[in-house]
Design brief:
39% of the residues lie in helices and 16% in strands. The chain contains 13 helices and 9 strands. α2 (26-36) packs across α4 (64-80). It comes from Urochloa decumbens. This is FAM86 N-terminal domain-containing protein.
């Protein structure tokens, strides 16, 4: 019993730390802090916050304002509940408030550094519940101000969990992502052994940020003809791709086995262009796909296949996609339930995986 309780306590503290590194909203951090303290933010939890949210245990790129906000919320909650705030937490908060440091990296508010840790789905105890993969990302803090391409969306998390849950689908395959944003999906594809990973986006600032994120994760983004890229196992190509302007000849050299996309059905105006690009990528003259599964299962296919994760925020936009896909002789099957991924992100309380739909798209013969 004692060992089980200690294991649970350790797991709750691990979730708290990983949630902080992932940049979860302060309200979610406080909820996990309460859970770790058995219902309140105890002195033990406060010490854990200090040890793991400050100093050498935190990457310099972590947003200082974010950490200060969390400490302020913790102090307020503990005080309101007539609890004891440890002196060290008061001192750390006061030092932060009085600091006149102008370090542009620490005080940068338009972008936020995040570490998304995917936990192994099978474990016997906390020590063996290893972190499968850690993605280090620079993400925009201005999601509602038009900087959507550099934001982290739930469909991207869902698609990443799907890749990690079914690695054999993607291993040794050429994978091509549309609207790659911060590049999280590409990092997971590389982790499971995709033979080639091509990430694309039609926004130049998003593409620049994506390349920086690949470098943060030690992934090679050299030019295609570079010997370094040819010899490296950690190879990812980041390409500019405008759905409106790209031609079939532009895409002919890729011939991907798998096409992916996360939250790319956001604008009815762009839907016809998206469907056109999907049709071109799914059409592979003279080649047969190698993606296989058990007879009759959702992964069996004789040609290229696309997996699109999306949150249906606007029914009209989704219906527009469904009609355009049908007109283009694309089969779009909802496999959300039959291919539900494992929960690799139990510490990310803000991530509502139930809102995401997963579509498997193929070209009808």
């Amino acid at each position: 019993m004692a060992d089980a309780a200690a294991q649970e306590d350790a797991e709750q503290l691990l979730h708290l730390k990983l949630a902080f590194l992932a940049g979860e909203p302060p309200a979610c951090i406080l909820a996990l802090a309460r859970k770790a303290g058995g219902g309140s933010i105890t002195s033990h939890v406060q010490n854990f916050l200090l040890e793991n949210f400050t100093g050498t245990n935190v990457d310099r790129r972590q947003n200082s304002t974010y950490t200060t906000t969390i400490f302020k919320r913790v102090i307020s909650e503990v005080e309101l509940s007539s609890g004891v705030v440890i002196d060290e937490l008061y001192e750390e908060f006061a030092q932060r408030m009085l600091s006149k440091a102008k370090d542009s990296l620490l005080n940068r508010t338009d972008y936020m550094y995040k570490e998304i840790s995917f936990l192994s789905s099978t474990y016997d105890n906390v020590s063996s519940r290893l972190i499968s993969v850690v993605a280090r990302l620079s993400c925009s803090s201005n999601m509602l101000e038009g900087d959507t391409g550099c934001s982290l969306w739930p469909s991207s998390l869902f698609l990443s969990e799907f890749i990690l849950s079914y690695p054999k689908i993607f291993s040794t395959k050429c994978c091509f992502e549309l609207g790659s944003g911060v590049g999280l999906v590409g990092i997971c594809l590389n982790y499971v052994g995709a033979s080639k990973v091509i990430l694309t986006d039609g926004d130049t600032s998003t593409l620049a940020n994506m390349k920086e994120n690949m470098e943060l994760n030690n992934l090679c983004i050299e030019q295609e003809d570079s010997e370094v890229l040819k010899e490296s196992k950690n190879k990812v190509e980041c390409k500019y791709l405008s759905w409106e302007e790209v031609s079939e000849s532009d895409l002919r050299g890729y011939q991907p086995d798998i096409i992916l996309g996360a939250d790319i059905m956001y604008d009815p105006v762009s839907v016809p262009h998206l469907v056109r690009v999907l049709s071109m990528l799914l059409r592979r003259d003279g080649r047969q796909g190698e993606t296989k599964g058990k007879s009759g299962d959702e992964f069996e296919t004789e040609g290229p296949v696309a997996y699109i994760a999306t949150v249906i925020r606007n029914a009209e936009t989704f219906n527009c996609f469904a009609k355009s896909a049908a007109d283009a002789r694309l089969s779009a099957i909802n496999i959300t339930s039959s291919a539900a991924p494992s929960d690799f992100l139990p510490h990310m309380l803000s991530y509502d995986r139930s809102s995401v739909q997963l579509l498997k798209i193929t070209l009808l013969s």
